[in-house]
Amino acid sequence: MKIIYASLLIPILCLLCAKQIFAQSNPTDKVDKTDKTDKDDKAGSFKFGINYLSNNVIMGRADTIKTPMLIPDIKYTFSNGIYFSGSVTYIPNRITGKLDEGNLTGGYDFDITDNLSAETSFSKLFYNKNSTQIGSSINSTINASLDYDISGIVTPTIGADYNFVSKGFKNDVFVNAGLSHDFITTGIINDDDFLVISPLAEVNGGTQNFYDAYLTQKKYKLAANTSKALAKQKARLSKFNLLDYEFSVPMAYKVGVLILHTTPSYAISQNKLPANITGSMINKPGIFYFDIGATIKL
């Protein structure tokens, strides 16, 4: 059986080595919940890694040009579940302004029962003034989420974000609901390694004031006629609506202190603005993107 598992692992490892991960839901967090040695270890943990994100997509929205990113990150988790993390975003295909964004996060990840876990966090975001990221108008975010494991068969999740948007614009609320299932294989190459594959289906809803701020301040700050058309949509952008459906397959392979991880994702956007406002931005309903990378956990 180990020979079969190893043959299945080879194409995954080739993909990991060929590209370089960053996801809204990081697979390394799934490793933390899966690793039995970690559950028995009361000490804190330290992680640092490098991730590659193929495109900047938020709630099914993306800019005209794909924006691949390199994202080094670092995280320290105390034994009681309190953690602090930070990351920076580097955009290699730019001539100037390559260092695009940074963030600092403090949070608390804890178990309520054996099957029910929760997490809450606060993130402060710092963007380059010339950033073209869709979410570059978001200054900080408060997040809370719940996961419930139903007999190891399926895990429903629900989460909510409150986003503080640039001055002059209303703040945003996002609500997320999803279903996932973990496929776990151990002893692929040696007795201590394991592979976690967690197919995930999600639905996201919320307000779009961040998008209003992005289009007004970044994308179309010089286009008067487009700004007038956008102004007529402000009431719509401030209302809570279905934003997108997302389907992803987070995968993580851990051997020793090394975690290799990737997440291919497909977002199907809903309630987008008319094409006469978004112009040459990506208006297709479906967007494929992926993240990939490596993390060291000590």
Question: What keywords describe this structure?
Answer:
19% helix, single chain, alpha+beta, disordered N terminus, globular, twelve-stranded antiparallel barrel, 298 residues, Porin
Write structural notes for this entry.
With 298 residues, the chain is an alpha+beta fold. The chain has one domain: monomeric porin ompg (Porin), CATH 2.40.160. The chain is built from 7 helices and 15 strands. A 12-stranded antiparallel barrel has the order 1-2-3-4-5-6-7-8-11-12-14-15. β9 and β10 (194-197) form a beta hairpin. The longest helix has 17 residues, at 2-18. The radius of gyration is 20 Å and the shape is globular. The two termini are 30 Å apart.
| CATH third-tier fold name | Porin
- The domain tally reads 1
CATH architecture: Beta Barrel
Instruction: Please write the string of helix (H) and strand (E) elements.
Output: HHHEEEEEEEEEEEHHHEEEHE
Produce the secondary structure layout.
Elements: H1 2-18, H2 27-34, H3 36-40, E1 45-53, E2 69-77, E3 82-90, E4 99-111, E5 116-127, E6 138-148, E7 155-165, E8 172-180, E9 183-186, E10 194-197, E11 200-206, H4 209-219, H5 224-231, H6 234-237, E12 241-248, E13 251-255, E14 258-269, H7 275-278, E15 286-297
Antiparallel strand pairs: 1-2, 1-15, 2-3, 3-4, 4-5, 5-6, 6-7, 7-8, 8-11, 9-10, 10-13, 11-12, 12-14, 13-14, 14-15
Structure in a nutshell:
Keywords: Signal. The protein has a single domain (2-297), classed as monomeric porin ompg (Porin, Beta Barrel).
